[in-house]
Design brief:
By secondary structure, the chain is an alpha/beta fold. It has helices at residues 2-14, 41-45, 53-62, 113-122, 124-130, 155-158, 161-168; strands at residues 22-24, 49-51, 67-73, 78-84, 92-96, 99-109, 136-140, 145-150, 172-176. A four-stranded mixed beta sheet has the order 3-4-6-5. The relative contact order is 0.14.
């Protein structure tokens, strides 16, 4: 599940899904009012969606040289933009389809997303030599870590995070996960519908 979440998060920054972040349209209320009585944010998510893709693309382009990560906090209805360096950036508020979207900036990240992707790709041989059971890897945009999935029974792999981080020169987190096995589709070629 974490790997899927990471892929979705990575698509915001990497443009894998054309930067199409989706979020819920909630009931329209005056800015000074709180949520209406009985408001259920989970139920609101299924009511109506708005497209934050253009905003995400704008943020990605505007902060390209400092962008360490970007993710959506659904419960707070905001986009968090992690940046390298210590220069503060004021929060922004955007109106999209009548919905207020807050953008907050967190400076102080050590590496950009692009740098971590390059380290991960350039360190492929080191990762494979150190973690032979590694079956997945991604950059966690929330934490600024290279995350590597190993099989749950790989005790040596689970303990290799610190040494691998030192070898790669970037933060590494090792997670125990069963590898995902893709199953072939079953086709009903005859059209009988029978199993």
């Amino acid at each position: 599940m974490q790997a899927i979440a990471a892929i979705v998060i990575a698509s915001l920054t990497a443009g894998v899904a054309h930067a199409e972040g989706r979020m819920a349209q909630v009931n329209e209320v005056p800015a000074q009012a709180g949520p209406p009585a009985g408001y259920d944010p989970v139920a609101a998510l299924s009511e109506k969606h708005i497209d934050t893709g253009p905003l995400v693309l704008h943020l990605k382009e505007r902060y390209a040289d400092r962008l360490a990560g970007m993710y959506f906090e659904r419960e707070r209805n905001r986009i968090v933009v992690r940046l390298t360096g210590h220069a503060a950036v004021a929060p922004e508020t955007h109106q999209i389809s009548g919905e207020r979207i807050e953008v907050v900036f967190e400076p102080g990240a050590l590496h950009t997303f692009t740098e971590l992707m390059a380290v991960m790709e350039g360190g492929r041989a080191t990762i494979e030599r150190t973690l032979p059971t590694a079956h997945g890897r991604y950059v966690d945009e929330r934490t600024g870590e290279i995350v590597i999935g190993v099989e749950p029974d790989d005790m040596a792999g689970l303990a290799a995070g610190e040494a691998l981080a030192e070898a790669l020169g970037a933060p590494v987190r090792i997670e125990a996960e069963e590898p995902m096995v893709l199953q072939p589709a079953i086709l009903d070629i005859g059209g009988t519908g029978a199993d």
